[in-house]
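Need tokens for this chain, all 415 residues.
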Amino acid sequence: MAPGPSLPPSAQTVPGLVTYEWVALDKRNKLMKGEMQGKNAALVKAELRRLGMNPRSVKERPKPLFGAAGKAVKPRDIAIFSRQIATMMAAGVPMVQAFDIIAGGQRNIRFKNMLNDVRSGIESGSSLHEALGRYPQQFDELYRNLVHAGESAGVLDTVLATVATYKERIEAIKAKIKKALFYPVMVMVVALGVTMILLLFVVPVFQQTFSDAGAELPAPTQFVIGASKFMQSWWWLVIGALVAAIAGSIIGKRRSRAFAEVLDRLSLHLPVIGNILRQSAIARFARTLGVTFQAGVPLVEALEAVAGATGSVVYANAVRAMRDDVAVGHQMQLAMRQTGLFPNMVVQMTAIGEESGALDSMLFKVADFYEEEVNNAVDTLSSLLEPLIMVVLGVLVGGMVISIYLPIFKMAGTV
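Here are the structure tokens for all 415 residues:
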């Protein structure tokens, strides 16, 4: 059972103190359990007695063998937190208390400690955007700029609700993209695994049979046997090359912007999937810029913050080029047209928004349209990929099996 409200909140993590799990009897002789931080067990017992409790046991909380620091804080966690804090602020809950409540419900120790640290910053006099600035990886510049704009305008609760909706929409788009890519990648991995098993363990059995029979082998069978011999001798090299290529691509994309741009351009030109990635980048650009502009952030600053939110290096570079053009006085629709990456419909909607003074509204309409396009494209891709992947698997695995059995059919025909 949780301790009464007079007990110190266990959610607060103070550096240098140890967390103890305690069991005690209250004034009604009722068994209570909880956690408390202290320098040692004796001081914790003394604090419990001061609060009118009779300590039965005080033990240091055991540390887990794995994941002691907690799991990494994911963007989805930030999206959920944004909705929670927005709801509590709209309900009139004080900010410090809202952070206490949200942190107390977190199972991820790392995120819990992070929220407590932000709350401590607010208690010491920092504004929310300044306190969030301690964690730039989780709360990026765009997020902090939106919060700062809400604080400056005195509409923090409204801006937080907008940010929460924005984060949810962006995470939904990212989930759709992952869904579109996950299925074909996993099927290809399985296909490669099955092929390697056949070459390493099945084909050698038939190879020995054919060698004993002394029959002349068809060209497809000779090719498969040759591939099998190569895999038996150099399987470690093939697997190592695949792992090195994947690891090299991931590391190179993180460390080299030029390499990341090359990969991104290749991805955008892939059949079907490239179109989904382009539509996703446009949707994220429009949604992010609309939210930022609506919050009162100046357009040049908004474009700088939006560049990193597109999810594409190519589109991020284009948005920075647009920012430079807008900074010297060009209209955004003209700067957008110069990049050559935005469809005419997007440019025209932006032009109408600039002329009518409703740029944020037009950008939201663009975002809604392209988010729906992404949803439809992913659903269509899933339905098209299933038969296509079956054909690929059939040709790859079936062709190998047929090439193995060709000599058997030939020998049976001569009997």
